[in-house]
Specification:
Layout lengths: L3 H30 L8 H18 L13 H6 L9 H11 L1
Helix pairs in contact: 1-2, 2-4
Length: 99
């Protein structure tokens, strides 16, 4: 792993995972402060969201799986909503923490 481009790509992928974990943590803390009781363990919530990022990246992958290209990141990191006004990240958290 001496290729500078590969090292840069790996660092970017790790940064994406860090950003996703931070976003989940921030959202969970906000929910708890607002009185929502989490019914799922935090590790399950993190794992579910990371799985969805990987699945989202895989759907758009053309041979090279890159998390940074996962469409769901727009919802998780930027709060982008789908046309029906639903944030996929919020919906994913809701399903995970209430089941």
């Amino acid at each position: 792993m001496n290729d500078p481009d590969e090292i840069t790509a790996i660092k970017l992928e790790i940064r994406v995972l860090q950003d996703v974990i931070n976003a989940v943590d921030t959202r969970l803390r906000a929910l708890e402060r607002s009185g929502v009781k989490l019914r799922a363990p935090r590790p399950l919530v993190y794992a579910t969201v990371i799985y969805e990022v990987i699945a989202s990246a895989a759907k758009t992958s053309c041979g090279t799986l890159r998390l940074v290209r996962a469409p769901i990141l727009d919802s998780i990191l930027d709060g982008v909503e789908i046309p029906d006004g639903v944030n996929l990240f919020d919906r994913l958290l809701e399903i995970t923490i209430t089941n």
